[in-house]
Amino acid sequence: AKLAERLVPHAIVVPPSRLLATIGQSLKWMQHNGQLPKGSGGGFDLFRGAARTRRAADLEERVVKKLAGQIRYGAQCHAESSLFSPDGAALITGSVDGFIEVWDSDTCRLRRDLPYQATPDDERFMMHDKSVLCLVLSRDGEFLASGSQDGKIKVWKLATGKLLRKFDRAHTGGVTCLAFARDGSQVASGSFDQLARVHGLKSGKTLKDFRGHSSYVNAVCYAEDGTKVLSASSDGTIKVWELRTQDCALTFRLSLGSSHATAETSIHTLVPMPGTPDHFLAVNRTSTAHVVTLQGQVVRSFSSGKATGGDFVCGTVSPQGKWAYCAGEDGKVYVFDLSHSEGAQLEHIVKVADKDLIGICHHPHRNLLATHAADGMLKLWKP
What we know:
By secondary structure, the protein is mostly beta strands. It contains two helices and 30 strands.
């Protein structure tokens, strides 16, 4: 108490309105630096640290059915990878020509409020020398990691486009998939060279090497507790690796799902299920998808029912885990309702592309799905 009394004469008292003014100036500065979308204004949640883009219509997860917008690429160009930012304000794409671009998810226009996209100067863009095959964001959306056809991984600061770290020898083949650790200190990767690896952002070195697959590694992700890494491969297996020792703790396969499938049928998708720790959506090159556990148990399986011409090429899940979206080689997305206790049910089929589908991703909190295909079109879909 005596110490407080002695400090009072030296304390400066300012009106409470000064705090609001300071916050307002900070928000303007963040918007100037590309950390806020234009027009967010009073729609910024200071506690979440993100724009309040969640709408009443999106509180309930609904299946997407109609076109909401599209991005058309130039001749001989298309998106190879895409994902939404955690706040949902941006859609980020990596293209076959090596460019990484950030789009407004509402208008489908390039984000010109970002300093590195304010001018058409190629020197300021985030880019690789070869095709950008995969992208991943840290949980807070601050850092973006990208993997390219020439085996390189780059880590960027999304707000400024600054290159923070580069792994020139991450792999000897194209980098097919990436996953950030929960604390953002490491990034796991998979490659055409049949390896999965973990790289340290602080050290700039490859920290872990997971060897054992006999074909391409198409998907990697971390277990909920961060002590294990999972990898899915074109050899038809999913492997669970101990992060500390680099040992393979478990190897398992999915059911074949169709008469023409073999034990080596490629597994291309492995996505953590929202709200269900250590459950994953696993999809292979058949017309059947699965929800599996970290222990290799198949919890449920669901199929499009199409015998030929409808094998899945990629998949994703809605933010609350109600819908599984599986894209087929026939250019259609098959939507499964996972909320039924008796089993997943095929709810809807939507035609999204006339040419080969490459990838899909779901908005983090809106009923919005992005699909991109080899025809140079990236499309957004809504209920």
